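Note to self: keep these together.
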Amino acid sequence: MVTLASARDERLLAAAARAGCVCLFLGLESFRARSLELANKSFNVVESYGEVVARIHAHGITVQAGIVFGFDGDDEGTFENTLVEATRLGLDGATVSLLTPFPGTPLFQQLERDGRLLTRDWSYYNGKTAVTFRPARMSPEALWNGYMWFRRHFFSRSCILERLRRSGVRPLQSFALNWGYREFPKEADEKAELEKLVKVQVDQPVYRFGDPNARVDLGICYDQLALQDSNNAPRYFAMAVQEMRTVADNAPTHQPAAFNLGIVNLHMGNLEESNKWFKRAVELGRNTELGMRAQKILQQHTFSP
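Structure:
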């Protein structure tokens, strides 16, 4: 393990190489400066990543990067941006994790104060198989899906070969390591994880007390379960609509409920109903992130906003 600051020490790297070091773990954490700033890790300067990785490679040492998703500066564009940058740098490998607020840490205390914790079942607090809090700029389900999307693409054959081509250091060793990481959850396991996420959502106090955001998040989980499980899709779609309509009926200005009702109905093939809800989302805020996304979808499906 090495810090970004230590990795600039040429004598240290040369001594490590002479001693037989073949791989260093480098905690990059994030490729977004805002995320690092909010996590009090602004000492990680994103613009220096390329120089540091190249310096380590120059000594014949591979880089295993630590990457974490879920910081308050992260949104749904973070996953693709991270993949592009990680590939460009020629990272030899990565340990990819979900941000996890372990009990007793300042992060846990902050999220507890903000009412953003989803569960106190500590078995979920492992950084790999469950989202345990409500992210700031996306739903828990979107964080889980983005995390899995990144893992699939980062450890795909084409991405492995491109990263190792750019690195040029110990390619056979790195290929074997990357191939081992390809054992990520398959579709059946993803469905089980979504079901686990549903349980977490239903058990959280904010859901039981009728928090609209918690209901919309649960509806999103049901929608994703419908897409995963064709045999039970009608039931899951109905449950998704029920959760989101409850919010839309009781809080007509709740834009996430309107937008996600558009998404669910689009997945169900109910284009007229989908059109109605996307238009509602636009009316509730044309210049917001969801409003702009709704306009784009309406245009793609030849609807008029």
